[in-house]
Amino acid sequence: MNLVAITRSFVVRAKRFLGFDTLRSKYAYADDPRFGHIAESRVADSWVKTTCGYCSVGCGMLIGVKDGKAVAARGNPDHPVNRGKLCPKGLSEHHMLTAPGRATTPLLRKDGVLTPVSWDEAITTMVTRICSIQARHGRGTLGVVGTGQLLTEETYTLGKLVQLGFGTSNNDGNTTLCMASAVSGYKLSFGSDGPPGSYEDLETADVILLIGANIADNHPILCERLQRNQHRTLIVADPRVTKTAMMADIHLPVKPRSDIALLNGIAQILIRDGLIDHAYIEAHTEGFAEFAAFVATFTPEHTSRVTGLGVDLIEHVAHLYGNAKSAFIGWTMGVNHSTQGAVTVTAINNLALITGNIGRTGASPFSITGQCNAMGTRETGFTSSLPGYRKFENPEDRQALADIWNIDVGRIPTQRGKAYPDIIEAAVAGSIKALWFVATNPAVSFPNYDLLEFALKNIEFLVVQDGFHPTPTTAFADLVLPAAIWGEKEGTYTNSERRISKVNKVVAPPGEARADFDIFLAIADKLGLREELYPGWTTTHDAYKDWQRVSAGRACDYSAISWEQIEREGGVQWGGDRLYSDGRFAFDTGRARLHSVPCEPFAEQPDKEYNLILNTGRTVEHWHTRTKTGAIAMLNGMVPNAWLEMNPIDAAQLKLRSHDRVTIISRRNRVAQIELRITGIVAPGQVFMPFHFPEATSNLVTLGAFDPISREPNFKQCAVRVEKSVSS
Amino acid sequence: MRLSLLESGAPARVVKSLIPERSLESGEQYRFHFDMTKCIGCRSCEVACNEQNGNPYDINWRRVGELEGGSYPDTLRHYLSMGCNHCLDADCVKGCPVEAYTKDPITGIVLHSADACIGCQYCVWNCPYSVPQFNAERGVVGKCDMCQGRLAEGLEPACVNACPEHAIEIEIVNKIEWKADFTAADSPGMPAARHTVSTTRITLPPAVAGGELERVDSGQIRAEHPHWSLVFMTTMVQAVVGALIVMLLAHATDTLSLTLLAFVTAVALNISVFHLGRPAYAWRALKMWRRSWLSREVLLFALFFLSIGACTAASWAQALGLLHAGQVVPLCGWAASFLGVLGTIASAYIYLVPARPSWNMVHTPLDFLLSAALLGAALAPVLEKAAALLGRLEPSYFAHTPVHYSTWPVLIISVLWFSNQIIRLFRLRSSSLFEGRASFALMRGALLRPTVISSFALVLLAAGIILSGVWTLGLLCAIVAVLSTRYLFFVSVVPLSMGLSFLRARHA
Question: Is B332 within 8 Å of B106 (Cβ atoms)?
Fold first, then answer.
């Protein structure tokens, strides 16, 4: 039989080799009826309208499908967020649905080896093992870490399953590694979470101050929104000369972690020069007198010493902000990834409040979120608060939920359980004995890897539910549950500007992988609680309808927003364009609170032995721990490996050259064989590396120090030294 | 589901059309305008281009380069996004041996036909921007065509459409005016526009005009492809041409030697065919002899092969007693020599391209001619000895008259050959062009230095051995010396190119 096949294969190869065949059909062009002339391989039969699954900007997109396969990605020209534009990750997102490395079958560790098992065996084992551990050691010995990657409906479903089904309040999300400080800061200032502004403010503000936000790399489509604004003055505070800093009219190269001093110093000048809105302060805030007295010590000279900025520059920036008709402050991880993240957010809010730059067009203190559905987890997640921005401590909130869910109020915890880092520390200490990770990869993303590794080895049972396998985290798993990813399920995401957007199913998940929602229902079923927790639910739309009831009357009120409306309008913002336009805040007094925020030095200062400050961050081509973007050839090809940025002055002292392989050493561990980039992007004494790369994870060396309020890790500064790697 | 920016409801105050609204008039063509002040380095254009053209990840018809300057905190970072520059005086068009390139008479777009292309990659060598890229899977080159298929439909090219900052657009340029003043085509990180009169207009940030910006991809120069088939082909043909002339001068054109030379020529020309992505279409390379040095080389070497073949045939006829025209062999032989020398010169001219500074030197034709002389002077006596050995066999078809070759010409040629190489190295070291110095640095580097030293040592050794009368061993040393020098010639060239990124300093 094979003779024919061999001959044919030989003929094909010979034709290819001699050049008779130039793969014309593979490289042919054709006309797409909607998008015009394009490679034939990208011409779709039909288009599915959806929302991007990477960052929180929430771009509307169209995924082209041909013969049941995703073949093209386009920005949705009619979507209000991105108006047809996408970043390189979005433009190649259809490749993720055919990417290699997917988890396709449940895997159970048997005799040390992850072995394929049936879904039934997987779920039975999971429930049996967890219930057995809980029976022996208490319900709180199960810790669950979810994610901002799930649909809102799924997060809501997971919260009920963990808190009411498994009965443990030790439920948190990887969002604690990301925007927990913003949540805490909003709650401290305004009494509730919820970014008050809209992207539209970027187009209308006179002054835009970005603090620790490299939107050109991390939220490129927001740059498009910002660049529409021809009249703005863009001020970027960042210790690194980021791409965003290059866009700025004024770059403030602050010393690491001196942002609080900058904010207090600006407040001091504003108060000194009368550039504040007395009427607004009088009517809508409390604590001004104490605040004014506190920031009085942040004279321009003092602020200059702490931040490293010139006095004139600080005065200039303060006056720009104070004289703006509408001023916008945006921030991301430069602020949040800090042991002082939550209070830094309140310092930002202080500026907005004393100048009345909130609740108006172009005027907002605005947290730009990380993950596609971080906001959804903030609203629905049964983690740091009760669903619908309700408080664990508030008996009325608990009663209201119990009534809606028709359960005994005693089942709702009266206080928040352990936050993510505390769950890991409890696993180290032995008081958490089972862990369930959903769509997150802590073996790359959690700070101080050695401690995490100890925790994962110390527990009895680890379940990892993920779209990809193997990942550095599934390597530790006792049970791997293969999950559907973006593009394989239907529901909603909420973006940074509170816009609820529809996410649709483009293709079926590979192999036996299932939507997270279906996995949660199957677990509830096994627990015998499906009908109680999820009465009559079969689809995520059922979860959405339940969530609409839960959110009714809350700040994040979804009750009047149907899936159809979201689909039709390209997303709907809960709370409208902006929050607090009436000046009424969520505290009982209706007033916002001004906080006095001291500026403390960051925890691990450089010294003789560890003389450099390591900063971490992202690059536009990659997403988080690169499980997704690493599997997309185009993106991975553009940035295939990690690098370390070092100032030429430090490099000269260390006698290092660009492209040398170096080792970064901290008190905790070392990362070896990093490609050195000598560049003026970073200041002398500071180095920077991206955190995306599992094979060279920055978290081997980062510090496990956490914000006391938000519990967010201080990823941005730790003390290291750098040496040339011994060649491998 | 609409695509164009204007239709998408974007506010008119910001968005103007990014493609020309009127049609071209005579003397005009389309061009790219890249606004460096707007680009944020997001690389959406690169991805959009690959999606548009269905290219593999490592073939990027549009690329984004990084530029950096100044010192912290007054550091400058900027980005260059470039496709094809659709030059007025495009070297890819001029060099192509098969007319795969055409400059569209209406739009001015430099078009490439995959069907016509034979995959010789001469355009890759010619383009100062490294725009054409060889797709090994297809066996042909490909490049940016300004999405002419989309332009024809009134749609923006994919990169223009994708750019979130509207930093890329299509404009109309008056060719005569542009030829008179194309300073706006120059930018840090780009080879000088004068080589080919690039049409891309680049808007530079004011601070950059001072020329502070430098590319970030120059810290890591990698060796180029060795093109083994060309290493062997050029060396073998040069040896044959040299030997033939030496034999003619010595009146020692015996049949067996001629046969061997004709055979080597045949092998060499066949090897060279496999340098092509599409060997089956090698014959097409003859087409553009009026303007392409590659076509001329192919034509002259083909004629050389025919004449050395005729010469050999005549010699056989004479040996077998079929022909008594004693003058036919030297006549054919001298014709072949003449064509061979011309072919060798044409061959050298292929490498005299501004886009490859370490090739674009007088040392290249000198090397080719001196290598022919060196190998010829060493090969002819060895052939003579072999013929003498065979001549002793019975029955003697190949009556042999002994010839004595003196050794001093080998010594002189070796010294000249050696000097040519050494002077080339010194000139590269002090080249005014970065790429020239980078070639020197490559040869001085750990990877190539042993080869450089041994090739120089071998040529001196060859001369020494031959002076002591051991021709065969001397010839072997000379062959290895020339082969390794030719290898170095190919791998150590650093092409002009637009600046790329720090991590990905080159593409496929």
Answer: no
